Amino acid sequence: MTRIAPDRAALQEAVLAVLRRTAPEVSAASLDPLRPLRDQVDLDSIDWLNFLVALHERLRVDVPESDYGKLRTLDDVVGYLAEKGAAAA
Amino acid sequence: MIEFKLPSLGAEMDEGTLLEWRVGPGDVVHKGDVVAVVDTSKSAIDVEIWQDGTIDALRTGLNEKVPVGTVLAWLREPGETPEHVEAERRRLAASAAAAPSAAAPVPGVASGAPPAPAKAPADVSSNDAVAARSAAGERRHVSPAARVRAEALGVDLARVPGTGPDAAVTVEDVERVAAARRSPADRALAMRAAIGAAMARSKRDIPHYYLATDTVLARAIDWLTARNAARPVTGRVVMAAVLLKAVAIALRSFPDLNGYYRDGAFVAGAGIHLGVAISLRQGGLIAPAIRDTDTLTLDELMKRLADLVARARALTLKSSEMSDATVTVTNLGDQGVDLVEGVIYPPQVALVGFGRVRQRPWLDGQTIVPAPVVTVTLSADHRASDGHRGGLFLNHLDALLQDPARLDEATR
Questions:
Q1: Which residue from B233, B238, B281 is facing A45, i.e. has the nearest CB?
Q2: B208-216/B15-21 β-pairing
Q3: Do A46 and B281 touch (CB under 8 A)?
Q4: What is the residue-averaged pLDDT of chain B?
Q5: B280 interface with A at CB cutoff 8 Å
Q6: What digits encode the pLDDT tens for the residues A21-71?
Q7: Strand partners of residue B378
């Protein structure tokens, strides 16, 4: 398993916690961070939007619609948020 | 005095178990207030009352399983004199004693279940009434043992009516509520059975016809993208909401597709209340209604949709949402299917289906261009409409989706 920086690990955990609000069955162990999220978790368009709204609530990052395509894997999401200056509180 | 009866809770719900009273004798209620929580095989439903008045007496007790149409409570109407109330009480008690067999069947609900056993016409015990008033929000004592037990069993104390002294909540009260609760596995099985029964009945009773049409969504997508780009994530609208709005507006011109088929005749719905088919994470399907969908702005509709999806998944829906849908829309686009030939929810007469939006070669004049296309389907009851009408409806829907800005403005 690849090692990731502690603050990035915390951010990943925060993202997973938010995801679990919509998909309670998700866990760090079950999710492959390098495979597309929507292949592993059943998320429809409203679930996805709710996930982004919750991320915004928790991490204060607004994701424009034009960036949705960049957020395919969990790794993508964490990387994107980190770049935008998000830090797990 | 009015008899407040258990309303229909959806096509496949013929009975429910009274889990909780939110009001007690003497409480003033208003249209739309949630007065009780009833458990069906699918979920706990908040039952709303549709009249103003004062609760005179509770007629169904906690944990009683009763058919739809059973008298739950007696309601005094505003302005009734005490003498009138007394006379009414005697009349209602007498009629309850005289006809103790199954409550009047609700039209459109074919009851396959045997009638409920005769109930004694007495008022619900004063204990339950006192417990109800306490559950309605006054502070009440919860014994330490009850608190510990509630924690261990995962019971929400706010939902436990107390039967101890001064309506205190006891360990037995907590255990009773826990026992009445269904396990997720039970609920899943019960839900499967309910869906199966409704769908079997639909296929047996409703002569379905099916129509499909491909609609180009380029204009709608471009318009929505531009609209969403100007908004933060909290203000964005999904395409599913746009499609719902379009269906609602289209139905204004096709009242023969919006309503119920009952007792050999079609009855047009009083409003356009779209049922939204929502899949549940634990398996199963529920299709609660958004009332007066055609009168909502797109932003209002989006909020209602998101809220409905959240509550449907948490299984905290209201009785009006379960029974009011006049047409159902099923959108399986996110699941990746091209089209859905859906099964109508009785007693409705139509179901509109959307598949996924996919890029297809399309002819623009003599040129082939890529276009985002969605296949829209209509399943309809041949007793209420013919293919010609169905076809006109789908064409009208297509036309509406070519002018999304106007769709946003149409509310009245």
A1: B238
A2: unpaired
A3: no
A4: 83
A5: no
A6: 888 888 888 899 999 998 888 888 888 888 999 899 888 899 998 899 899
A7: B211, B352
Q: Which of B225, B233, B334 sits opposite A52 (nearest CB)?
A: B233
- Please give the pLDDT value at position B110: 36
Nearest chain A residue to B282 by CA: give it. Answer: A25
Q: Does B225 touch chain A (CB under 8 A)?
A: yes
- Partner A contacted by B306 (CB < 8 A): yes
Radius of gyration of chain A (CA): 12
Contact assessment for residue B349 and residue B279, using Cβ atoms and an 8 Å cutoff: no
Q: Distance, in angstroms, between B141 CA and closest chain A CA?
A: 33
Predicted confidence band of residue B113 (pLDDT cuts 50, 70, 90): very low
Distance from CA of A56 to the nearest CA of B (A): 8
Region of poorest pLDDT, from B149-158, B229-238, B320-329, B349-358: B149-158
Cα angle at B377 between B371 and B380, to 5 degrees? 160
Closest Cα partner for B272 from B403, B381, B410? B410
pLDDT 10s digits, B130-141? 444 444 445 567
User: CA B228, B357, B378 angle in degrees (round to 5)?
Assistant: 110
- Residue A45, chain B, CB below 8 Å: the answer is yes
**Residue from the list B236, B305, B335 with its beta carbon closest to the beta carbon of A65:** B236
User: Measured between alpha carbons, how far is A22 from B209 in angstroms, rounded to an integer?
Assistant: 36
Question: How far is residue B69's CA from residue B3's CA, in Å, rounded to a whole number?
Answer: 10
